[in-house]
Each structure stands twice: as C-alpha cells, then as structure tokens.
Design brief:
- By secondary structure, this protein is α/β, with parallel strands linked by helices.
- The protein folds into 2 domains: 59 residues, no CATH class; 127 residues, 3-Layer(aba) Sandwich (Rossmann fold).
- A 5-stranded parallel β-sheet has the order 4-5-3-6-7, with helices on both faces. The chain has a two-stranded antiparallel sheet with strand order 1-2.
- Helix 8 links the parallel strand 6 and strand 7.
- InterPro entries: Helicase_C-like (IPR001650), P-loop_NTPase (IPR027417), SNF2/RAD54-like_C (IPR049730).
- Keywords: Hydrolase, Nucleus.
- It comes from Kalanchoe fedtschenkoi.
C-alpha cells in the first residue's frame, strides 16, 4: 500500500505522457503494453517517479538502497534471493529485455557490494569477451552477470553459473529459452536452477500464458515432424558413412 500510495499518481502521469502518443488519431497499444511492463519491473524506469521520489540519486547511502529495493516487488524478491544464493556460493545470470532495467540492477549491485559483469547490445565485441573471461576465470569474484535477453545470445558461454533469473520475459519465448541455455553449456557440472519473475495479476501473466500456448504449439509441431538428432540414434553415422575399406575400393 505504501508503494501504491507514493507512486500511483506519478506512474499514471508517466504512462499518459510516454505511451498515449496519438498518431493519426490512434493510440499506440504497443507503447501502452511496454509502459505497463515497466510498471511491473520498477517505478524508477519512469523518470518522474525516479527523481521525484529518490531525490538526489548521486548521493549514495543505505536509505537510497532501501528505497530502491522497497519500490519494486520484483527487487524485494531478488534481493532476498541473491543474499541467500551468495551465502551458499551460487553464481547467477540475470536477464532483462530493458537496458534501463539493467542500469538499475547494476546500481543495486554496486550499492549491495555484489561483484558483477554486464553485457548488452551496446557492449563491444572485445569487452564482451573480456567480461565472459573474467566471469568464467577460476577463482573469479564475480557473483552475477547482467545480460539483455537478446544480446546474450549466440557465442555466450557462461557455464560457470548455476542459477538463471529471467527478470522480465521476452515477447518471444524462444529468446528466453536461448537465454536459459547460456548456463547449459559444455563444462557445466552443476544442476542449473531457473527462476522467472512474473508480477501477479498484471500484463505479464497474460504474456506468460501466451508464451506457454506458443511453446505447446511448437512442441506439437516437432512431435508430428518426428525430428531427432544424430545423438539420439547410435547407428546414424554407420548408416550414412561408408566403411574405410569401401571408400578405398572406390578410389
């Protein structure tokens, strides 16, 4: 109730200003959904709520960290979870669609004293490689790796992490699956735990249901097509590759 009372007017105003852009007398529904997803993540994604409530954000103290955490239900849960995971020597990958949300999470990590690396679409190739090497290095002090869902795709191997947190789901469930696979790589020796944050009774629940339906449809298609890999069939290569003697005879 405290959060709702403080931020309600500011968030409603921000949504009206940022989302209800009239183009040819039509409201952009996509923009409205994006703004609602911001509400689910953190009010500081709205500039008016950020500076209006947080005061001078250059002034770092314990009360600022407390305000940052208590302003978002997701961050309250994340904070409790990360404290426990660090105590039990786990390492974590955190994915978000929103670069600005990664900024907030990075600030939270710094205030909490958690060592972390970060990768998003603006990260240069050389820095991406350095960040991965630093995180995967034996004895690394890095506890978390912050990644944007789509930037953390191909070529990313973070098998030294054993926990994946999807802070906000992607529009396409396949992108989330690809993000989860960053920890499921060659060399992974631990059980990988995956947590997905979804705000109850919000637009996120609707998107999650749509994603489940889409994945069920894809699963049905693959079952009908009867796709399989060579790893599932031990005789695959013997049926398609000729014995060495036969090859020599033809040559």
């Amino acid at each position: 109730m405290f959060f709702f009372g403080v931020f309600k007017d500011g968030l409603y105003s921000a949504i009206e200003i940022e989302a209800f852009t009239v183009v040819n007398m039509k409201v952009s529904l996509l923009n409205i959904v994006v703004e609602l997803k911001k509400c689910c993540n953190h009010p500081f994604l709205f500039e008016s709520a950020d500076y209006g409530y947080g005061g001078d954000r250059a002034f770092i103290d314990s009360s600022k960290l407390e305000r940052m955490i208590l302003s978002s239900g997701k961050l309250v849960i994340l904070d409790k979870l990360l404290v426990r995971l660090q105590e039990t020597n786990h390492r974590v990958l955190i994915f978000s669609q929103m670069v600005r949300m990664l900024d907030i999470l990075a600030e939270y990590m710094s205030l909490r004293g958690f060592q972390f690396q970060r990768l998003d679409g603006s990260t240069k190739a050389e820095l991406r490689h350095q960040a991965m090497e630093h995180f995967n290095a034996p004895g690394s002090d890095d506890f978390c790796f912050l990644l944007s869902t789509r930037a953390g795709g191909l070529g990313i191997n973070l098998a030294t992490a054993d926990t994946v947190i999807i802070f906000d789901s992607d529009w396409n469930p396949l992108n989330d699956l690809q993000a989860m696979s960053r920890a499921h790589r060659i060399g992974q020796q631990d059980v990988v735990n995956i947590c997905r944050f979804v705000t109850s009774k919000s637009v996120e629940e609707d998107f999650l249901e749509r994603a489940k339906k889409k994945m069920n449809e894809l699963s049905a298609i693959f079952k009908v097509a009867n796709f399989y890999s060579a790893e599932d069939d031990g005789s695959f290569w013997s049926r398609w590759i000729k014995p060495e003697a036969a090859i020599d005879a033809e040559v």
